Amino acid sequence: MIYIMTALYQEAKPILKHLELKRIPTRTGLEIYEGRIPYPGKITEKIENDGAPIRLVITGTGVIAAAAATAASLSDVRGGEQDFLINWGSCAAERGDLLEGYLANQLISTMDQKTYYPDLLFKTGWKEACVITEPGVWNQSTHHASDRVILHDMEAAAIYYAASFFLAPHQMLFAKVVTDFGMEKAEAESDAMKKKCAEMMERAYPRLETLLQSLSEFLMEESASDGWEEPEELNILYQEFCCSETMKADLRKQIHYWILAQVDYQAEMEKLRLAGELPCRDRREGKKRIEQLKKTLF
Predict the structure, then answer these.
(1) Alpha carbon of 260 to those of 42, 119, 250: distances in Å?
(2) Which of 146, 222, 246, 280 to pair with 51, CA 20 to 30 A apart?
(3) How does pLDDT run across 103-137, given as a tens digit for each residue?
(4) What are the residues whose beta carbons fall under 8 Å from the beta carbon of 210, sequence distance 6 or more?
């Protein structure tokens, strides 16, 4: 399943129209739509249904709404390699061109001063930029003396944080379109600005459509292959961390990511053993050690 998180209906509208997504009933009250991404070319012959499954969620604006909606939407996700999240939305830029599209290679949260790094293992051809997530509308009050492109939004870092409980860093993309260069809250919430945002996101949609089709082909080709070869030590690690079935899925996902990212996780495991922190005494300690590894090997 490909999950698309948008903060505003205006950002979602082009996707709903072009992919003909249908709203589904939920107990959460969230606006959730489902459908499929049509495959171009020969990949269609490999699948029973024409297109990769997609679920779009309108989270609402701000870090709290974004984090809560993301967690609620992914609560039943097992974090398999066919699960992928895209945060698609508008943003403000400190410099650059309107309608330019970027993928975030760094997310900075001004709420808690934490920084996250999505792993862009999936090649897209998009430009990359740093996204700073603010608690409110960015109004040019702060600028950063940097050669890099700096973007501002209100949700990306929160979505990353919430999604990281279910997905690995290489299973997330943060695609942003520049729609302004800073404004006051009243202007951002005006009907005129909402209309302008919808028009600009419609014009930017072809870029997203190409990205979605490339991603869906990539995921299907990965699924059609034999998949990754699990390390022989995996069952031993399950025992050392006292894993439940949920913890096994989490640890397996993390190890797969570390292998793809060429991270020497085995050396860190050996450090834990030498320090007497592996094997764990119980499941609670195992969860603590896994979270410790995630932070150390980020």
Answers:
(1) 27, 10, 16
(2) 246
(3) 999 999 999 999 999 888 777 889 999 999 999 99
(4) none
Nearest to 254 by CA among 295, 226, 220: 295
Please tell me the distance from the alpha carbon of residue 109 to that of residue 223, in angstroms, as a whole number: 34
Beta strands in 7-147 (DSSP E): 22-23, 31-37, 52-58, 84-93, 101-109, 115-116, 127-133
DSSP labels for 134-187? -SS---SS-----SS-EEEESSHHHHHHHHTTTS-GGGEEEEEEEEES---HHH
3-state DSSP of 203-217: HHHHHHHHHHHHHHH
Specify the 3-state DSSP secondary structure of 129: strand
Q: Quickly tell me which residue has 């034999």 as its tokens.
A: 226
Sign of CA dihedral 75, 81, 82, 83: positive
Tell me the helices (H) and strands (E) count for the chain, helix number first: 9, 10
Structure tokens at 105: 């290679």
pLDDT of 245 above 80 = no
Which is nearest to 166 in space by CA: 75, 292, 294? 75
For residue 4, the SS3 value is: strand
Q: CA–CA separation, 248 vs 239, rounded Å?
A: 10
| Alpha-carbon gap, residue 173 to 120, rounded angstroms | 7
> What's residue 214's pLDDT?
84
Instruction: State residue 53 phi and psi, 5-degree precision.
Output: -65, 140
Q: In 3-state terms, what secondary structure has residue 227?
A: coil
